[in-house]
Amino acid sequence: MSLRSTTLRSRKRFATGLVAGIAVLSLAACTSNDSSGDDDNDETSGGTSAAAAGSNDESGDKVVIGFSAPAADHGWMGSITESAQNVADEYDDVELRVAEGTNDVNVQISQIETFINDGVDAIVLLPFDGAAMTPIALEAMSKGIPVINVDREFDDPNAARVTVLGDNYGMGVSAGAWVCAEADGNKDAVVAEIAGIDSLPLTQDRSKGFKDALSECGLDVDNRVAADFTVEGGEEAATNLLQAAPKIDFLWNHDDDQGVGVLAAIENAGRDEFKMIGGAGSANAMRSIQDGDSVLKATVIYPSTQAADGIKLARLLVQGKSMSDLVEVEVPRKVQLYAPVVTEENVDQYIDTAFES
């Protein structure tokens, strides 16, 4: 079958599915960047040259994917684009066209318009603003170009063929469960929280999950401040918190990028009486956990591999493949990645895919 006929058939199927309406299927699953191919091939980690015949990684028709994400103004976002490019490079049948990262909604809309006009086979999009990007994503879908929505959801589920998400509420639950385990029945433990930007739903979800998990062991949040996901904001928020709270037993910081500033404030204050758990899962946080020389004892992962998984799913969609570990013959509508806690006991399992702050 020719590439042209394959692409046209795929686009007709996507457009028909959009018009007919699609029931949303939620699947809690994590796709992997690991290779199941030939261990003797050192140049790939899951790409086509190492794939067994008949596997999803076996080379197929060329797939042109447009990719757009916000500006890489902190480590996690930088890793989003880098990881997407690295996975695309593993496949000799994928051409990834990366738009320049932007925090201007109008610029990002124009990027997607360009991808549509160029006739790409699929679009992987981490929107700066999910609501604002919904109309242009719907336009792409109506023209038979599948959109893979990453991290920040659209207002209309029909604006994406697949949505790949982290688990913000689950991050809070994981952090709270870790605190409960470490408290070991001590209902007098003093718990503090340094959140991200309070106006964002993701921050609200993380805080709600944390509160809900703590309630299971009879604890609550005694002191809470909000920062802004930056090093400077983290240091300022932590300084204020430490001044207001003369005693802390456990501290959850939502974001490891702002955690660089949080740890600086803790060191400047000479405080070491508590245990801290971070958030997002940066490499420098994990190295600190490995070294065991600070109050930081754990972090909760919010995967920066979401766009990389989006690239893999886009390739499967265009080539008419499914997720090989599922019985279902179609790629699912939603993939939500897990939020595990990383400690000194399991840090080696996660550090290789961690992002640099």
TrEMBL record:
It comes from the Bacteria. Residues 65-321 form the Periplasmic binding protein domain. It is found in: Cell envelope. Belongs to the bacterial solute-binding protein 2 family. This is Substrate-binding domain-containing protein. Residues 44-55 have a biased composition (Low complexity). It holds the Pfam family Peripla_BP_4. PANTHER family: D-ALLOSE-BINDING PERIPLASMIC PROTEIN-RELATED. The lineage of its organism: Bacteria, Bacillati, Actinomycetota, Actinomycetes, Propionibacteriales. InterPro entries: Peripla_BP_I (IPR028082), SBP_2_dom (IPR025997). GO terms for cellular component: cell envelope.
